[in-house]
Amino acid sequence: MEKIILQQSRDENPEPDVNQGNNSEIIQGSVFKKFFLEIASITIFTWHFFKEVFKPPYEFNELLKQSFLIGYKSFPLVAVTGFIIGLVLTIQSRPTLAKFGAESWLPAMVAVSIIREIGPVIIALIFAGKVGSGIGAELASMNTTEQIDAMQVSHTNPFKYLVVTRVLSATLMLPILVIFADGVGLLGSFVGVNIKGDVSIYFFFSQIFKSLGFNDLFPAFIKTFFFGFAIGLVGSYKGYYSNKGTEGVGKAANSAVVFASLMVFIIDMIAVQITSLLQH
Amino acid sequence: MTDNSTAIITEQDKRQNVFVVEMEHLKKSFGNNLVLRDINLVIHKGENLVILGKSGTGKSVLIKCIVGLVDIDEGKLVILGHNISELKDEELIEVHEKIGFLFQSGALYDSMTVRENLEFPLRRQIGSMKKEKIKLLIKEALENVGLSETINEMPSELSGGMRKRLGLARTLILKPEIMLYDEPTTGLDPITSKEISKLILEVQKKYNTSSIIITHDIECARLTANRIIVIKDGICASEGSYTDLQNSTDTWVRSFFE
Q1: Contact status of A157 with chain B (Cβ, < 8 Å)
Q2: Given an 8 Å threshold on Cβ–Cβ distance, is A4 in contact with B248?
Q3: Is B160 helix (H, G, I), strand (E, B) or coil?
Q4: Domain ranges of chain B
């Protein structure tokens, strides 16, 4: 026989009305609260990353796969970007240098600009647009379609498998891409120099190597690891904790790019300050 | 009326109270929203228990509590004789390894082929296994759900029904003792829904699994249920066989079957 456990429906609704009042104070308060909650949440996420990254089992296969997808597949885009940066920077700088009769400084000036600042920052922004949004959208989509839950049910730590591998890949791949882009950028500059002149490749690069020092190369190289880390982490965070549904996927991708780009500028500013402090 | 030919739980089992899952005063809330108020239920060994209820009444949350995707706030949850709250992490993993979960969407990994989808849980849970053995298990799992020819396809190339069947194959490949089905026939046409319902019965018979089936599909409930529980406002409102509930004195319960 049927067992009647509940005869009467209960009175609804236990949820308090959250839409009480909409004055600017409440809105401002909620914006600040949301901002600090977001900062707290991403800090915990970062802490979680460092806790998981050293703990076995290590997902080497997934790390390699992600490095291939994140790094190798970005080479064409980075090459085109790097070449155009070098070419345009050279063409734009030439008239100003010519005014002062300093055209011979063109290779050195372009090289320092590309290697110290423009190369790492522009490539990091391109990387944030391509990889950061990709990670955000992919994880958000996996979240929406319950693939992350399915992974957990399959006795896999989804954080380790999805987040740690992607953040590590982004951290390791961006410096390689930046070095590559810098090289291609210098080639672009060589082409730019030769549009209106006749400079041998040997002379061009010997000028560059004379002008570059350890202080130009090392800080620029180190900061790209931080850029890559920030882009991977923000993309993963936005995707992993996205709202379910297609809107959540779009929002995750979009906010991953915006937030990661902002992080690139903030890290760059800090890196420049630290470098100048250390150099004096 | 419940099809008794499908019921494989024996009277002896019932007498011996062989429960695979027991819940007492289970509560779960999300913020201020109390989803599960006071859930008390048991699942017998080899039984198919169908849970009915309106959307948003916490049916999916209930089975996610069992598989460990959602932590309970209060109450007692005993799975295969183990009180979950008293288990250490490693013991908890061992218990959860005996539970299979078929997600509403199938939750197939989009970036992997059908073969890789099936390999994934095998490699994760069983670890080092010979390639030949893995091949054999995958072949067998796909044959069980009638998808042998799709082995090298991507999930996006499969129909809704095929995705559900593949999701089921991926779950069954680990030979779970308890199966949890989250709306297995949602979004499918009546014929495919019936096929999935039959598959659930086959799984019960072949592997002697105990199952909880969350559904809105009354036909699926009729075909698969040994017992049905109706959830209302976060508590078990009614319980009985399909026929019992169909003839319930409660008009709200009866409305599910109309």
Answers
A1: no
A2: yes
A3: helix
A4: 6-255
Report ipTM (2 d.p.).
0.83
A153/B contact by beta carbon, under 8 A = yes
Does the structure show a pLDDT above 90 at A172? yes
Residue ranges, chain B, pLDDT below 50: 1-9, 14-15
- Domain assignments of chain A as residue spans, ordered by start: 60-279
Give the pLDDT confidence of A58-91 residue by residue, as tens digits: 889 999 999 999 999 999 999 999 999 999 999 9
Q: Which residue of B has its CA nearest to A150?
A: B107
Q: Name the residue among B34, B125, B238 with its Cβ closest to that of A14.
A: B34
Q: Which of B110, B124, B245 sits opposite A155 (nearest CB)?
A: B124
Instruction: Say which residues have a Cβ less than 8 Å from residue A155's Cβ, sequence separation at least 6.
Output: B93, B96, B97, B121, B124, B125
What pLDDT shows up at residue B24?
92
Torsion sign across C-alpha atoms A217, A219, A225, A226: negative
Q: Judge whether A267 and A259 are in contact, CB under 8 Å.
A: no
Nearest C-alpha of chain A: how many angstroms from B257? 14
Dist CA A111 CA A56 (whole Å): 42
Q: What percent of chain A has pLDDT over 70?
A: 90
Q: Is B177 left (phi over 0), alpha (psi -120 to 50) or beta?
A: alpha
Grade residue A14 by pLDDT with cuts at 50, 70 and 90. Answer: very low
Interchain contact A19–B (C-beta under 8 A): no
Interchain CB contact of B92 with A (< 8 Å): no
Q: Which CATH superfamily is domain B6-255 in?
A: P-loop containing nucleotide triphosphate hydrolases (3.40.50.300)
- What pLDDT score does A239 carry? 95
